[in-house]
Amino acid sequence: MSQTVSVYLLPKLFEPDQLRGGCAVVIDVLRASTTIIHALAAGAKAVIPCEEIDEAKQLAANHSPDERLLGGERDGVRIEGFDLDNSPLAYTAEAVAGKTIIFTSTNGTRALARANLAEPILIGSFVNIRATIDQLINEQRPVHLVCAGTCGEITSEDVLFAGAVATALKEENFQPGNDEADIAGGFFQRHTGSSESLFDALCKSTGGNNLLQAGFDADIRRAADMNRFDIVPQYNSHENTITISV
User: Exposure string (b/e) for 98-133, b if CB count within 10 Å is 16 or more?
Assistant: First the structure.
């Protein structure tokens, strides 16, 4: 029986139960997905996602300050009292190796919570796109690609990634599970090309424009660095932790 790949352009456009029994990939290219991948690639022990700032602070109080860091943003800006923001470039080995990152973001961590009935739940971005596709190719369950969006609005950077993955899976005989899989695939095919063209496309997106205005050009450049890592983070919804999938 052929497998299916579905795309959801925003978390609010599906009901959580639709993902039950399937594999989900949560996508927040600019920047939560990219940052979580960087943190784990740099040696962070785990990432604990939180929807709310107060939740993150409460969890941090239960961990030794030597063992954890608070990371995240609201409206693109580091949260007061947090150790790190949501820039992937801040999550270096010197900063995060061996630490548990308690992390909250405006869009990405909320999308993760919405997808929590899927299993497994993977974290994808352009920096690990080949590794993500390679893992999904062997998936026997329906694949659900969940775009985080920006403040409840569809953002082209997430759709672009979803389209790239959906296209790759369709080449492996996956069937579209919804119309959005074809829509995202067509959008990606209109933007294929060099890494520079990907960077340009990310800059023109809603999320990219927001980052440019905030002076985070380098974060967009890093998010466009395809296949920088060969790891795929996986979210365990029962333990509320993100670690590297093995």
Answer: ebbbbbbbbbbbbbbbbbbbbbbbbbbbbbbbebbb
Four-point Cα dihedral 182, 232, 115, 125, nearest 10: -50
Report yes or no on whether pTM surpasses 0.85.
yes
Is residue 243 situated within a structural domain?
no
- Tokens representing 191? 């933007």
Contact 6, 180 (CB under 8 A): yes
Supply the DSSP string of 115-159, one letter for each residue: TTTSSSEEEE-GGGHHHHHHHHHT--SPEEEEE--BTTB--HHHH
Residue with tokens 């579905």: 6
56 burial level (CB within 10 Å; 0-12, 13-18, 19+): buried
Confirm whether 77 is domain-assigned: yes
User: Which residue's entry shows tokens 């590297």?
Assistant: 244
Sheet containing strand 4-8, strands side by side = 77-78, 68-74, 100-104, 46-50, 241-244, 233-236, 121-124, 23-27, 143-147, 4-8, 175-176
Q: What is the mean pLDDT of each run of 10 residues along the chain (246 residues)?
A: 90 97 98 98 98 96 93 93 97 98 96 97 98 96 97 95 97 97 95 81 93 95 96 96 90
In a domain, 44, yes or no: yes
Domain tally, the chain: 1
Q: Which domain holds residue 17?
A: 4-237
The CATH number of whichever domain residue 212 belongs to comes to: 3.90.1560.10
| Residue 244 placed within a domain | no
